[in-house]
Amino acid sequence: MVIMTLCRVIYLVYNRDFFSLEFFQLVKSFFSGLIFDSSTVAYIFLPFTVLSLLPFKFQTANGFKQFLRGLFIALTLVCVTANLADAIYFKFSRKRSGIEIFTMLTDESNPVGGYFVTYWPWLLIIAALTLLGAFLYVFGTPNLSKSRRKWWFYAVVTIVLAVSARGSIGLKPLKTFDAARFVPAEMVPVTVNTPFNLMSSWQGSSLERIEYFPDSIATQFLATEKFYFDNKTPPNHPNVVVFILESFARDYCGWLRDQDLYTPFLDSLSKKSLNFTNAYANGNVSIEGLPAIMAGIPNYMEVPYINSSYQNNTVQNLGGLLSELNYESHFYHGADNGTMGFQNFIKISGWQNYYGKTEYPHYTRDYDGSWGIFDGPYFEHVEMELSAKKEPFVASVFSLTSHEPYPLPEKYKSKYKPGTLLIHPNIQYTDEMLRNFFTSARTKPWFKNTIFIITADHTSHSKDKYFYSATGKFEIPLLVYDPSGQYIQAGINSKTVNQIDIMPTVLDIVNYPYPFFSLGTSMLDTTRGYAYQKNGGVFQIVSYPYVAQLKPNGKFVFFKKYKEDNKRYFDLFPAEYRTRKLMLRKLLAFVQQHHNHMIDNSFYLEH
Questions:
Q1: pLDDT tens-digit profile of 11-64?
Q2: Nearest 5°: CA angle at 89, between 83 and 94?
Q3: Yes or no: is domain 217-599 CATH 3.40.720.10?
């Protein structure tokens, strides 16, 4: 328990910019964390505990004692390594890691070996804490020879272990999201520990059916069947290109912050685009962003959809639906084929063609040394590929270079202003490579008849604490650019939108002639918009500037939060109580529709 607490201290100190440092909140997090630590110790050290209690003579043998000591140290090493490795990874994931981390670690494209070089001082910290555990073991080992002879001793130990492991004496065992009962959602990662979250996410990969409302009422608050067809005109057939920019937070985008920042090309393009100024991601990592953008599946489970037990469900993505209008679909990602399960997800949900590093002809020349192909040559390759494709097509391009460890081609390393974060030069690089892509594409016949959607998979680091808040950490850019002006008029739209709205928006633009399943709504719809996230076990709905949260204990919280302001405002005008009531019902309906349709494998419509 001492070692686990020290790991929590290190976790907090290393990621201090992400968390509230108010004394009262820290005390609550640390004391509540003892409950999760005791559960972890009860589970992880169960082999050691059982072997220590065996009532046999060989217990006193020196060899067996040394074996127990080695087992204790090995289990301590597991706990320390999991917690401290996750302290590093938290800067990217914004949460404690679950079982999805094993998929990432076994991914051939993931440069795990490079992490040992980059973060070698952490190996010394891990070794020091493990040795501390070995030192404390010598002074903490009781003499149980007399206790083993008494039946009540085993009864007491069994009860204590059972209660510790479950985390309570209630009917349900402790889960990660229970931490939100004790502390604010933002402090949940401090309160729990990584070994516990690994076990919790493994056990919690299945959803429970929800019945907040009768289905007919839930559908009134959130209709899952969308139909945008205008039968006065036939379907349109513009090409569609979706750029998913790695880690492009609103924080870096000049046009969204009224500052000269790191995106001069996108700043200029925003003036020619439909610019959504209140756009939100549905998750925190790439493996959560892709299903949201491509298939309208938000991150509303303990583990990402791609790694969940529902990964083989029937779902329909943008490429599969547009194929019914004779579109060809192409997905480009310059990383190793199969990275993060993208290839399987794209194919199983109806996308026709996947292109990864294997299909890129100049891999050796343009490899970034970490993840895959530099954005510059890869964007150039994609532009040439699209020029040779049959129209109409829908394509998605997932960028790479703005991913940690932030490699840059040699000739660009000193070109950009350094900014205040390591990622800032890479944001400028990708922005310039987008400029080159559009400069070349404008000369091609297919360009004029193409709708471009530019967004991000998730956010990233910031020096501004606002961007670690309940809303700030999900704020991303979202531009819709129509060079012809035939389908989309340029302008600023302050409607609240999120990634799951992208698919229905495209289907609205092309005048898709069939009903389809979607939890999102067309961004061209003039009704009020909403964004949905799962934030540290708390279900959240945003309709700027309003935020509503549903905690695991059923408590509902409603407040206003303005951009660049880290305060929550709970005072409401009388008319705002209607908004509060509506957002609660929409949030409950969203959770119910998501969970039940996922369980029933009905995230699609037949026609």
A1: 999 988 778 788 888 999 999 999 999 999 999 999 998 888 877 777 778 888
A2: 100
A3: yes
